[in-house]
Amino acid sequence: xxxxxxxxxxxxxxxxxxxxxxxxxxxxxxxxxxxxxxxxxxxxxxxxxxxxxxxxxxxxxxxxxxxxxxxxxxxxxxxxxxxxxxxxxxxxxxxxxxxxxxxxxxxxxxxxxxxxxxxxxxxxxxxxxxxxxxxxxxxxxxxxxxxxxxxxxxxxxxxxxxxxxxxxxxxxxxxxxxxxxxxxxxxxxxxxxxxxxxxxxxxxxxxxxxxxxxxxxxxxxxxxxxxxxxxxxxxxxxxxxxxxxxxxxxxxxxxxxxxxxxxxxxxx
Length: 268
Description:
Layout: H1 8-17, H2 23-31, E1 38-42, H3 50-53, E2 59-64, H4 67-70, E3 80-84, H5 91-98, E4 106-110, H6 118-128, E5 135-141, E6 146-147, H7 151-162, H8 170-177, E7 200-209, H9 211-220, H10 222-229, H11 237-247, E8 255-267
Parallel strand pairs: 1-2, 1-4, 2-3, 4-5
Antiparallel strand pairs: 5-8, 6-8, 7-8
């Protein structure tokens, strides 16, 4: 996994402003899992996916290579275990820190697959998923958020993220923009999923935000943080003012922001 989220401000903004995923998404995924004993949430961050999974599975292990991210995760959910893993997870570490071979009923990766060594991760997934019937679900939301009555803000937001392209690997950018559609996904289709293993696009994360939330959301982005580290401030005072003006009402109005989700789901 890429070495990310080491900045305290970034992890603080992440847990505060990133959207939570809708219950319908987790219910849909869980409905495809024959057994609900153990789920593994990969690249968990502060637990945006792991927490709702804990109410659907007997046990959840949530892993991330960033101790800063996991420091913001809850510690009072008895069936949820957070683990900081090495950047490169060996097979021995996989079975020691996560789960024994063939014991995981569901693996989830929520808006983090693009930071993984995808072929190596899929091999690890095959080692720990239960056979038959183990399910893997990976999803993301991209840059095309939808703001209620905020088309001009959306245009500025997209332009802002386009300016981060020099600080983002081309492969990562394409994966995100295509909703993981181009990822080689070596798993079988799950019964009852009309799309097969192609992206499922029927779920949306929603959050009510003011313009300060949008600005903070930009600051959570790894590509923005990389630009700052390189001495380039993309979120200048002029850009912030442009966002506030486009938002209207001096930026104080709260609006509904939608984050369309692209899900790929399969089984071993």
